User: Which sequence fits this backbone?
């Protein structure tokens, strides 16, 4: 999913190889990004209600 992963998983076989980053950047840290083999960055324009 988009952003965030338990840091305890970094460097283990349980770590996600693909990290996703969206406009909200929930849970995205430098450590999260450097523990990725592949980065997927969502770039889109959308209407926000309100």
Assistant:
């Amino acid at each position: 999913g988009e952003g965030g992963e338990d840091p305890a998983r970094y460097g283990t076989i349980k770590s996600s190889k693909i990290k996703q980053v969206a406009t909200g950047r929930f849970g995205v840290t430098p450590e999260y990004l450097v523990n990725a083999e592949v980065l997927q960055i969502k770039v889109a324009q959308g209407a926000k209600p309100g």
Notes: The longest helix spans residues 30-34. Residues 7-41 form one domain.
